[in-house]
Design brief:
Two copies of one chain form a homodimer. The first copy, chain A, has twelve helices and 15 strands. The first copy, chain A, is an alpha/beta fold and 372 residues long. In chain A, the strands form four sheets. A five-stranded mixed sheet of chain A has the order 5-4-3-6-10. In chain A, helix 2 crosses helix 3 and helix 9 crosses helix 10. The longest helix of chain A has 21 residues. Chain A binds a DNA duplex (30 and 30 nucleotides) through helix 1 and helix 3.
DNA sequence: CGGATTTGTTTATTGGTTGAATTATTTGGC
DNA sequence: GCCAAATAATTCAACCAATAAACAAATCCG
């Protein structure tokens, strides 16, 4: 148990239990009743009722008239997340497109906007201005649906510091771009690495194992490490740079200055040129990850997903050979289920996840002008 | 915020705040007063007083008569951890010795017992029986000091499953040894990998950065990954197997069946034979770790500690070359401060850490026979 | 010696969960 | 068709723990 550094007051108890109830509903396949929530959380029915009342009043839950249950006794009222409560604005900027989407609390993509254009030619401020326009359209669409955006998150193909400063995004040609200063949406904005956010997108859609590695193969190679349902960002937010893990110490020179980086053997071009070489290199690097972190599941996304069948066996062979515990428990390899939208979806999920994880803060917000 | 799966009742609030107060005292360089604790935690003085009363009654804190303070106003009563409260029993079994120690709540090693003998010749049951004898001596010594052992933890050089089952300890010749069944001390027993526990030992003594990698070079090479002050054990508890990270894909064959594992280039023999080669190989593997996990500190322990000066530059060179973010923030390399006792110390620290992190459970224990 | 100052305790209040009793709404048996 | 059993949800008194504010204790300083 890691006792965090802050005191707990009674209101924290309520905040915690509100989150507990909301997440129980969210993670439930069916529509649980108050009594079912009480049974599965250990809270009293009375307490659950009180909490649910708050969540309904705050437009996070709805009671469904048609009760999906049978048996003897008073029928239960099914509870579910509201599709017309708060929503998340997911944004992505990448080499050849801009994208925005609105996801409601239930996780459904309600609106999706994409602009194809080469972003490498533009100064960051212009690219972000264009993205701001897209975001405004998304926001108008959300307003029309009665969805109040709780925040926005932006996926960037680069290293992002904790405050949203993009230190370097090589394929965009960006360096030290202060995104929050250039992209003011009037919403709380989170900026994160695209592989990180794509990993979170996979987490939410999969629903299965909460601990896995997501590897995205584009021009560069990035990875998102999800441990116990949470993204591991590292000390400075620069985790997951698997593209620069050394595979062949004296191998091909990399643009980063080192030799034999994975990126040179399993980047987009390399995969196209020689899938077997790419698979072997990936297998070597992934074995290192599994030996270090004891992950049971690896998800291949981005450009790897469509090539999955061509890569699988080659990767598997290396994993079986090089992972110390491969004999005790095999490593599962899967293709990502989300397509190219993964990062944008993950970004939106981060926003709605923040509401689902801490509904009390959302309910307590100084209610902003509804649908300006 | 990760809302965990359990409900929070009022008693949890108290449990949390008890831990908060106790840890505030533990992490304080001086002897804080109730008022100082109140200021640094945000709890009311009245609340702190009530909590401190409980902790004193439960023999976790003591009030120090000589108050180390000056100024105007009523003098404060200094608070400190009691040296005669609960203690931890740290155990270690390794290739050529058995060891046990008693550490009190303040972190001081009160007693230490070591038996040198080759454990590879013995069946596991016999080795554990001998360890049990050592543990009994340690317990008697603790009793004589008025220390009530809160539990025991055992460091083993091998893969340990969550329930204490040692799946394989190659250098002991163990396979599937059910340690808790063979070593009944009448105390809660934790079994963990030696590198993991040594890492925790370093964490407690260092007190500095809570995120680092501890690498221990013995016959095999193990690593403990400490993230935000907590050991990362991986999905099945088998994290940190850095010894089998591939360094040279087509290199020397390893006893694990793969080729080019770090262990073949930086194990005990390899370091002795060619320190430069070992340093380069370590540097390559450590670069992979840093690229993946964004760690800022690496601690070299075990057999590496005495060789630190010979290894440092070679490792550093590879890190500078191969870590993508080396230019943005350098990686700090350090030798471990704890000697060969690190794992045993870490084991004892785990026990006293469990009391410090959750004093409420300790206070609520069905008081066992004192000093049987 | 008396005011200022800081520490620690006492007391009434508040917020939030609990448990038991109560009300509500269905199924099923006679 | 009506009553018993069963299940769902709400109401209400009790309790637990933190809070705020007043109060008591112990020292320094002028």
């Amino acid at each position: 148990m890691n006792a965090s550094r802050s005191p707990v007051r009674q209101s924290s108890v309520r905040a915690h239990n509100l989150a507990l109830v909301l997440q129980t509903v969210a993670n439930s396949a069916d529509r649980p009743s108050r009594a079912a929530i009480s049974a599965s959380t250990g809270l009293t029915r009375a307490t659950v009722s009180a909490l649910v009342d708050d969540l309904i009043a705050g437009r996070l839950l709805t009671e469904l008239d048609p009760t999906p249950r049978t048996g003897a006794g008073r029928p239960a009222a099914g509870l579910a997340l509201t599709p017309d409560g708060p929503g998340g604005l997911g944004l992505e900027i990448n080499v050849d497109y801009l994208a925005a989407c609105v996801v409601d609390l239930t996780g459904v993509v309600r609106h999706r906007f994409v602009t194809r254009a080469d972003q490498r030619l533009l100064p960051p401020a212009e690219a972000l201005a264009a993205l701001g326009g897209l975001a405004a359209r998304a926001r108008a669409a959300a307003d029309a649906d009665g969805i109040e955006l709780a925040g926005a998150a932006l996926a960037v193909p680069g290293l992002v510091a904790a405050d949203g400063l993009v230190r370097v995004a090589p394929n965009l040609g960006w360096q030290d771009v202060d995104v929050p200063a250039l992209l003011n949406l009037g919403l709380p904005l989170t900026v994160d690495n695209e592989a990180n956010l794509a990993a979170l997108g996979e987490l939410r859609t999969d629903g299965g194992t909460p601990t896995f590695l997501y590897v995205s193969g584009e021009i560069g190679i990035g990875a998102g490490i999800v441990l116990d349902g949470e993204l591991y960002r590292g000390g400075r937010g620069w985790s997951g740079e698997i593209g620069h893990v050394t595979v062949y110490p004296d191998g091909r020179p990399c643009r980063c200055g080192a030799n034999g980086c994975l990126e040179q053997y399993a980047g987009q071009e390399a995969v196209a040129a020689d899938p077997d070489l790419a698979a072997a290199a990936l297998g070597i690097a992934l074995s290192a990850v599994v030996n270090l972190l004891d992950l049971g599941v690896i998800v291949l996304g981005g450009g790897y997903a469509p090539e999955f069948d061509r890569l699988r066996d080659g990767i598997d062979a290396e994993l079986r050979r090089r992972v110390l515990t491969a004999g005790l428990a095999p490593v599962a390899l899967r293709a990502a289920t989300l397509g190219p939208d993964a990062a944008m979806r993950g970004a939106a999920d981060v926003v709605i996840g923040s509401v689902r994880d801490d509904p009390a803060s959302w309910l307590a917000r100084s209610r902003p002008a509804q649908a300006v």
